[in-house]
Amino acid sequence: MEKYNAIIFAGRTERDNVLCEMENVSNKGFIKLGDKIFLERIVEEFVKCEEIGDIYISGIAEEDWETNLPVTFSDDQSSLFKEVQNVNKKYITKKENFSEIVVLHSCDGPLVTAEIISRLIKRCKEASGGELDGFFYYSFIKNEVMERKFPNSKRTYAKFKEFEVCGGDVIIINTRKMRDYQNIIDNLNEKRKSVLAQIIILNPFLIIQYLLKRLSIYKFMKSVNRRIFKVEKGVYAVLSDDAEIAMDVDKPHQLEEVRRYYNENKDIYD
Predict the structure, then answer these.
(1) What b/e string do you get for 206-219 counting C-beta neighbours within 10 Å, with b at 16 or more?
(2) Model's pTM, two decimal places?
(3) Model pLDDT for residues 180-223, shown as the tens digit of each residue
(4) Domain limits at 30?
(5) What CATH number does residue 98 fall under?
């Protein structure tokens, strides 16, 4: 079985200040959930996932977090795409055998499990015909799935023709195929909280259809592939039934919601 490298983003931004001050930590990844910090829980699950090989923590230095878990630190705090490429260049491609596929996650999403990661990888493979040979895989969760598990998350939903969805925090990319698309990936990441802003970047001609709720995900993804990547298929929007991958912690009420869910499901997490 091919094993894919994982990168966990742990850099601090100005948006994190309220939570970090509230929890008296220097980084959101150090917030406690039960008796473990976010980063510890996330890394432990990636270690248990049989599809994952090496794990890299980007955004903090080794002295920032003393751990015995098998991780490599990269203290780079540039854009998302540059962080991926820096880790890829400094570490991954230096190995004798390495995968071009990298699984990305953020340190503020502590509810992922090894099983959830495996299920998403399986769905991504199915979406592209059995192998991860696409450029980019982005996860989506339906409104009703998210609200059933996290009714107080107050997520913003993209309203497509078929359903309303929010984006997940686990992304899968091919580092070689994506290296020529740095600007667009960074722009999309900066606008990740606004679907309308992302559509303007990807294809402004679809805005009216989106606002009228006549734009299907199929048509949107077809447009992205043809307009941006000049291929029939390459970028995939993959629906997941695991709302946990979309429950990141940006605000105090989301931290409260994550802790509620954890306390109600300790048999899964401890």
Answers:
(1) beebbeeeebebee
(2) 0.93
(3) 887 887 777 777 667 778 888 888 888 899 999 899 988 988 98
(4) 4-140+167-179+232-269
(5) 3.90.550.10
